[in-house]
Amino acid sequence: MPLIGTGAVPGGAIGTELTVVTRRAFVPKMVVQIYRATPVLSACLANAQTASGGVSSVTIPVQGLPFTTAQPTDYSGAFNQPMIQNGSFEVDVNLAAVVVPIPFPGLEGLIQLNAAVVPLIEARMNDAGNQIADYLSTQFLTGAGGGINVDSLPLMAGLAAATAGQGSYGNIDGAANDWWRANVRTVAGNPTRALVLRDIVSATKFASGEAPNIAAAGPGTWELLSEDFLSLEQYLITPQQSFDQSSLGARAGFTALMIGAVPVYMDLGIPEGQIWYWNTRYLAAYIHEAAAFAFTGFASTLPNNQLGYVGALVVLMNFVCAKRKTITVATGYSSNVV
Q: pTM higher than 0.70, yes or no?
């Protein structure tokens, strides 16, 4: 409803009359107040791979046991007869479907024709992209995974398993295969550079010397970690100049906290008190080539005795980790209320 009785607009009968005979000055855009940035999802989509149809749409051969055995020899060069050793396994992942239906009532289109400030169908189309991104981020960071949903980081890390870090993922049981386990650590206290560095060293050791290249934490956990940096900041001024002569001013704080060459980002979807570490070489989104956030087009709803149209935004994809031991989860950290 129009706002009267404030600013230069009078209230009472005069203000009401003005609303009847005066056009409102609309801002011709829809300002979105919901949804959130998703840096972890962005990292996975940036490393997206193409998938196609079939059962076990993403099948990755992995080596879990040695194929050969080293042995010493003497001057004669003799060695024992080699045996055939089976060391190959396969990671099997099916793609999951996510659909965002988009309604378009027929009379809505007629009413808004040549009279729309913001066409509602455009707002719905824009919202469909935001909706699917927010859904995927939520499922990936906190979902149980499996079933008809996309696989999640908690599933890959085995957080719900009887023994944390184990459990089944990719059709391989981590309890029966120690090489197919994630690294789950329990810590205590405020996150600091020293403790996070210990996490990184633990992650590197667990992954046989391969360090993580990205980490993320919830906003309160990330902010508490940043306090360990801010107290040590120094500002250097170029001789005969000052900060006001620099277009950027004094730089304080960083978007990513770099520890041991691993950037730690803030993601609103990660539970507080946790820091996740992984390697983007082995964790990526696999997206079907024919359903990569595709729009189906609008179809008439007349067969349902309704004047209008309906369309859908569809993606067939899944998140896949090809090397489970490169995932480390540190839980038990303190966090600030932000």
A: yes
